[in-house]
Amino acid sequence: MAKTGAQILVDMLIKKGVEYVFGIPGGAVLPLFDTLYDSPIKFILTRHEQGAGHAADGYARATGKVGVCLVTSGPGATNLTTAIATAFMDSTPMVAITGQVKRKFIGSDAFQEADITGITRPITKHNYLIKDIRDLPGAVNEAFHIASTGRCGPVVIDLPVDITTETWDGAIPEEVNLPGYKPRYQGNPRQIRLAAETINHSRRPVVYTGGGIIHSGCHKELLEMAERGNFPVTTTLMGLGGFPEDHELSLGMLGMHGTLYANHAVTECDLLIAIGARFDDRITGKLDEFAPHAKIIHIDIDPASISKNIKVDVPVVGDAKNTLAELLPLIQPAERREWLEKIKEWKEKYPLSYDNSGVLPKPQYIIEQIWEVTKGDAIITTEVGQHQMWTAQYYTFTRPRTLISSGGLGTMGFGFPAAIGAQLGCPDKTVIDIAGDGSFQMNIQELATVVHHKLPVKVAIMNNGYLGMVRQWQELFYKKRYSQTHLEGNPDFVKVAEAYGAKGFRVERKEEVRPVLEKAMAIKGPVVIDFKIGEEENVFPMIPAGKTVKDAIREGTFGGMA
Amino acid sequence: MRHVITALVENKVGVLARIVGLFTSRGFNIDSLTVGETENPELSRLTVVVKGDDATIEQVRKQLGKVIDVIKVIDLTETPYVERDLLLVKVNVPPGKRGEILEIVDVFRGKIIDVGQKDLIIELSGTEDKLEAMIKLLHTYGIKEMARTGQIAMARGTKQ
Question: What domains can be seen in chain B, in order of their start residue?
Fold first, then answer.
């Protein structure tokens, strides 16, 4: 029986196991929404397309499944682009469906027309503009396949409205045929042997891991490998949760706001084993002084990530899980007592610390309390800025997919909608968006979405009344000239929450932190907690951009620069 | 160093835009880029001449390889290969110089494909060096207009 394009698409989504679609309707997608009206797919109406994209992203990161969003043409699609770019930078499997004007109007500057395949070309893994209904099923299959295999990423399908109403009775293919797309999952055995030899000869190795650990699901293999060879492990922001931070071999996060012991270990190591990480500038600082004494092994599924920023000695292209499974039996157990002793010294000399005096709660203390109240079992999403770094530093991540944060693009406004997706994907988990007052306002409208869909998402705002991270840089590097970082006109967040029908609390004293958190967690619905923190709180330690651990600014060491 | 890289790509809408966009967004400098059908109408061959150090060239190859529509990437510089560029040049013919110009064209084994009152259109194919050499000589007479295709290239022998 002939089906409309809309019916073909919706049937295929159901067949692919799509549970939720996030988005907003509009003119060019009316037939699709009419078809969805009768379908078992649960549609999550957000209040801005960016929110829909981040929610699909958060869903994908929390569950490992493909996140799906659907928006209309023109502004609907352009509003989605920040979310697409965010997913692209952090390798999230996502399929974004955008409406498009009728085929005969394409290129005519029609109402709500935008060249979205053109716009999203550099921020998608692949994209499609469907010009013929016979190409639709193949494109949907390919989109899901491409999004969720190899180095994952977003794929856009741009669908002209007249294709969604046209009918076709052809067979729906199951297979995909992409001669140019063959991601390599198995590492080259010779390279793996070479990696093992290099590892076995090293005296001061460090394992440096990124989001690849989470994507490939190899946290168990990583733990086994670290314990077998006594390798200290440091992770990027994206890698947090891939290795238990309460483990004695954990060095926490490295890089600009990483622990000093992680950065010292990388500087002194004779071998850096990078797994599913990409040597981002926030990790390396000054490139030619990054791991200066080390040979580098790099295991990554994306060949283009290898030797992109740093020349690698032993490249292994492959999936991290498969590669670690092959590598494990070749690694000789070793004590490395001297090296671990040295690391212990650094840990004792340079612990993460903050001054917990004063009346106002300290952000670091709030984050430690969130960890305690949730027993470390929550899914934490973050926005971008100081609160994100405090979260990375002071929340002890022990399980994969428990931190959802925009690492690569650094998108403010990501965390709250991402929490919506994560909560839907993991309904039994406590989901908390740790936010800043600046970031939260970038997608604050999604309060309506959490109330509408009765999602018990919690938002903890570290409210310093500033765009805090930018203010910190202005304090440190621009003589405290706070150009446009003071957020005058901030709303009363408690009242805003209440206006939307959520609960709101304000915390202005340290001793209120714990009881309010406990009260908030006990509430079954959405809660916003406005934590008033000091205006000039800073994130330390900090290695200034393009510098090394020698130039690190620590709590208490800073003062002369202002 | 100058590298000639060819890629076999699916002959689909937007492939060229994808590749040109990739070069722009990654900051690769290309000297020339050509694309045309192959013996298989579903496939096109792209030839790109790019200059850069080894690390840059490696990134060019890898990033090209990541494009879904790209099936195969070959750096011809590593193997024996032939390359050709096609030139059309409209050259000014000053009084009494026609014979001289025809002689130059003859030496380079070019062809005269249009003869005007005061100008000639010359067609020449060959390597970049050969084309440059003739262009340099023709500058003496005044070049009115010029068009080039950019390099196309192919590995020698049977093995690819």
Answer: 2-78 (3.30.70.260), 83-155 (3.30.70.1150)
